[in-house]
Amino acid sequence: MKLLFDQNLSSRLVGQLTAEFPGSVHVRDLGLAAASDPDIWAYAAANGFVIVSKDTDFQQRALLYGHPPKVIWVRLGNCSTAAVTVLLGLRLADIQAFETDTAASFLALS
């Protein structure tokens, strides 16, 4: 599963989660740091990414439009990159099940 990390998350997550999520990338690395949510959404859908964000906008888009792309909504508030890395690692089985669930459009993690 390839993750597309939104601007509100650290780009360091890509390197820290390479083993669990190969092929993942940060919006900044794609030149999408200043892109609108619809542009990021379209890129993720066209390129097989799951969007990971702390922003409720993507969660709301997932409810409104369904998938693709799917959305992982990180609900940790103001926290360290290490806390997000730990959360995604601890919830790896849930994330993998979410990927294969044909009905699910978003997954909230906290």
Characterization of this structure:
The chain is built from 5 helices and 5 strands; from the N terminus they run E-H-E-H-E-H-E-H-H-E. The protein has 110 residues and is an alpha/beta fold. The protein has one domain. It has a 5-stranded parallel sheet, sandwiched between helices. The longest helix is centred in the middle third of the chain and has 11 residues, at 37-47. The two termini are 20 Å apart. The mean pLDDT is 97.
Keywords:
alpha/beta; 110 residues; globular; 5-stranded parallel sheet; 41% helix
Q: Please state how the strands of the largest beta sheet are arranged side by side.
A: 2-1-3-4-5
What's the pLDDT, averaged over the residues? 97
Instruction: Tell me the major beta sheet.
Output: 5 strands, parallel
Strand elements, count: 5
> How large, in whole angstroms, is the Cα Rg?
12 Å
Short description:
The protein is an alpha/beta fold. Helix content is 41%, strand content 17%. The chain has 5 helices and 5 strands.
List the helices and strands and how they pair.
Blueprint: E1 2-5, H1 12-16, E2 25-26, H2 37-47, E3 49-53, H3 56-65, E4 71-74, H4 81-90, H5 92-100, E5 106-109
Parallel strand pairs: 1-2, 1-3, 3-4, 4-5
